[in-house]
Every structure is written in structure tokens, then in C-alpha cells.
Design a protein that fits this description.
single chain, mainly alpha, Vanadium-containing Chloroperoxidase, domain 1, 13 helices
């Protein structure tokens, strides 16, 4: 097997996959902490709305785009709004789970690194949710936005005062965007195909969806990107991850031989026939 097609799994020093049961428990614990930790900030309604007014004023002072400009694009058709609401409700968790499963099966060294990054980002975000409860723009009258999920469906949230499954005042930072951006970063790092940069479309679409549906402010997205950047700077890939990256197969073009060379009828082939004739 040549160097162009040598798979990463066949490398002598390829890292072993972590124990499956342990990883299932760790990932399940990560999602459980995500769901339960968000509920710890419930009951801070007044503070969440005060913070929402502050964030809205900060964005105007920074001259950030109005979230309403993105929402107006979605409101051009009911189908587009419905797709955006479905993307918000159905893609976040399954995409992250699929990302971790693929890394575990195909890139175990990258899996360990990505799981650590996601765990650190989630833990830090939950602390910020508790320290800075924030009502989303769909609840803020000053924003002039509508709750697209409630009006057009589907919606994953119930009335804020009776919703016992989620904390709707945990807008900053946006883990929707933070996880989506880490998915793209992880797949870009773990693969070497030319089209791997297209994974950046996932956080880009997520950005437009969470802002257009009035679930997050621009500053929620900026805070999530900054938090991920800090975590990526602290949680560096291990040496095994770097070796696994370098051992990924390269898809190099195979040089084609000219027909004359392939059949021995070119210049070199003619010279060989002439020498053979001279020998006779």
C-alpha cells in the first residue's frame, strides 16, 4: 500500500478508541448537565429582562446590525420561517451527537480533543448563564421582533412561566452557535479533503437561524465565538491528534502515462526497436 492511500487506522501509533461505555456515560452526562444546569437560572425574570435591555442598548451603541433585518428575510414566506424554526429545533442536538459519533468511530484521537472542548465550553457557558440571565429578543418588546416559533411553528419552548424543561433566560452565550462552530472546526481539523471548509456553512446557517427567529442577539453569538476561542487556546490537541492528522490519506492526482509510453511506441520505444534490429 502506497503513502497516498495508507489509512489512519492502520498506522502503528494510531491512538486507541476510549472505552465505549465510559464515553457514553460522559457524553450523556454532558447533555444532562446542559439540560439541568440551564434550569438553575429560572426565577430570575426581572434580572433577565433588565439585562436584555442592556444588551439591546449595547448593540445599538456598537452599531451592530438590527436583528430585525435578518428576521425580515425569513418573513418573506411561511415555508422559509418554518424551515428555520425546524432547523433550530431539530438540528442542534442530533448534529452534535453525530459529530461525536463519527469522530469516535473514524478519528478517535480527534474525538477526545473535541469532547474535551465541548465539555469545557458547555461548563463555562452554564456558569455565564447563571451569572448573567438574559431574556431572548423574542421576549423583548423594545426589539420589535416576533416569536417565529410560536407564530409559525414548530416550537420547542412553552410559556416561560410554566416551562419546566428549559431555561429560556440562558441566551448568552449561545450554545447553539458555539456547538455548531466547534462541529465545523472539529471536522476541518480531522479531515483533509478540499471540501472540508464547507462545514463552515453549518455555523453560518445556525447564526442566521438563531438571530432570525429572535432566539439570540448578535452579542450572544460573539460571546460564544470568543468563549470557544479561549477554550481552543487552552485545550490543545494532543500529540496523538497531530500524528493522526498527519497520517490521514492524501488524495494526490495519479500521473497519467502518455499512450506512446504506455504501449512502447513512442520515441523511446522506437529507439529500442532500432537497437534490437541492429543487434540482429
Amino acid at each position: 500500500m502506497n503513502a497516498r492511500t495508507w489509512p489512519a487506522e492502520a498506522e502503528p501509533d494510531a491512538p486507541a478508541r476510549p472505552p465505549l461505555v465510559r464515553e457514553l456515560l460522559l457524553v450523556a452526562g454532558l447533555f444532562l448537565v446542559y439540560k439541568l444546569g440551564r434550569r438553575l437560572a429560572t426565577g430570575h425574570t426581572d434580572e433577565a429582562f433588565r439585562n436584555a435591555h442592556h444588551v439591546w442598548d449595547w448593540e445599538r451603541a456598537l452599531r451592530l446590525p438590527d436583528e430585525g433585518a435578518v428576521q425580515s428575510l425569513l418573513l418573506h414566506g411561511d415555508s422559509l420561517v418554518h424551515v428555520a424554526n425546524t432547523y433550530y429545533a431539530a438540528v442542534h442536538f442530533p448534529a452534535t451527537v453525530g459529530f461525536l459519533v463519527w469522530l469516535y468511530l473514524r478519528r478517535p484521537a480527534h474525538y477526545v480533543w473535541a469532547r474535551r472542548v465541548l465539555t469545557a465550553v458547555t461548563g463555562a457557558a452554564l456558569v455565564l448563564h447563571l451569572a448573567f440571565p438574559l431574556a431572548p429578543p423574542r421576549m423583548l418588546g423594545a426589539a420589535g421582533l416576533i416569536d417565529t416559533a410560536r407564530v409559525f411553528g414548530p416550537s420547542v419552548y412553552g410559556p416561560p412561566r410554566t416551562d419546566q424543561l428549559s431555561n429560556q433566560f440562558a441566551a448568552m452565550p449561545s450554545l447553539h452557535f458555539g456547538w455548531a462552530l466547534m462541529l465545523a472546526v472539529g471536522l476541518i481539523v480531522a479531515t483533509r479533503s478540499r471540501g472540508r471548509w464547507l462545514w463552515l456553512l453549518h455555523p453560518l446557517v445556525t447564526l442566521l437561524v438563531i438571530v432570525g427567529t429572535a432566539n439570540h442577539y448578535w452579542l450572544d453569538v460573539i460571546a460564544a465565538a470568543a468563549l470557544l476561542g479561549v477554550v481552543l487556546a487552552l485545550v490543545r490537541p494532543s500529540h496523538g491528534t497531530v500524528r493522526a492528522r498527519r497520517s490521514l490519506p492524501l488524495r494526490l492526482p495519479v500521473p497519467r502515462r502518455r499512450p506512446a509510453e504506455r504501449h512502447g511506441t513512442g520515441r523511446c520505444g522506437t529507439e529500442r526497436h532500432e537497437l534490437a534490429g541492429a543487434g540482429r
